[in-house]
Amino acid sequence: MSFDSFHSHKASPGIIPIAPWQAFNKAWTAVKGYPADEFKFVEGVTPMSTLTETVIIIALYVVVVFGGREFMRNREPLKLNGLFKAHNLLLTLLSGGLLVLFIEQLAPTIWKNGLYNNICGGDGWTKPLVTLYYLNYITKYIELIDTVFLMVKKKPLTFLHTYHHPATALLCYTQLIGHTSVSWVPITLNLTVHVVMYWYYFQSARGIKVWWKEWITRLQIAQFIIDLGFVYFASWDYFASTHAPYLPHVGKCAGEPFAAIAGCVILSSYLVLFIMFYIATYRKASSRRAANKKMADKPAVVSIKESAVKMADGCSGVQHGNSNLVARK
């Protein structure tokens, strides 16, 4: 069965159709009063569709997080474990649900028209995808609550964490208003990572020890490397075809230049920061463990040497003191 016939196929009675978009569309229509694929992102009309709104939320985030840290400085940390579990389970389900909807929309067009057309042509910017892009963008503001939990629990607020969350909201905003068809690549990879990451946080909050924590950071680094491969390619294709057609390029990628620049800069900064975090957290920790083990083994070696010296003294009649060598009488 082809992808086209799959989408047009009506399941017979008694068979459960695998059609996430249909279920999502029914829920959207019930809430909004119109089908999901009729949603329009209009700058200045749609909620959170202007740079001013985005900047205000980011500024509020900074005030709440760092102001809250000062407020909590001489207070006991809050546990809020129930809310923390609910927050992480919600984001796991949201990320997984959006990922499934993206795959359902993208797989048929990639199969039919090819990968290049989806990252540079109109098939990467359909009405259903715009709806999903917008919902993904809104989830970035929900994810800002991650830092609030760290603050009230009096956990360390690293630069990576406090930069990454608001920068991602800004990144998603620039791609929405910039109509970059390649947006689905970083978004779907990010959703994949978030399913794993928020599930880990949920399990951790339940008191379950998860052995693959380090692999989350490795997965994030791999994500940014792949992201940058696609984004750099799409940006090069656009700028070469527009400003230097004599340079090698495939075609002309859709999207605005400012969105391409924002994507390249922000994603590149993520890659650098996450690699630095990985080295500081896991590589240096491994070095410290190795050094501590070496120090722990050293007294045992010294003790063996001392025992050997004492045994030799007993046989030779010579006693080793702290200063002079004294012959026994």
What would your notes on this structure say?
The protein has 329 residues and is mainly α. The protein has two domains: 17-286, no CATH class; 298-327. It is 72% helix and 2% strand. The chain has helices at 3-8, 20-32, 51-72, 81-113, 115-120, 127-142, 145-152, 159-178, 184-205, 213-243, 257-316, and strands at 318-320, 325-327. The chain has a two-stranded antiparallel ribbon. α3 (51-72) packs antiparallel against α8 (159-178) and α4 (81-113) runs antiparallel to α9. The longest helix has 60 residues, at 257-316. It is globular and about 60 Å long. The termini are far apart. Mean pLDDT is 85; it is low at 1-16 and 315-329. Its EC number is 2.3.1.-. This is Elongation of fatty acids protein. It is found in: Membrane. Keywords: Fatty acid biosynthesis, Fatty acid metabolism, Lipid biosynthesis, Lipid metabolism, Membrane, Transferase, Transmembrane, Transmembrane helix.
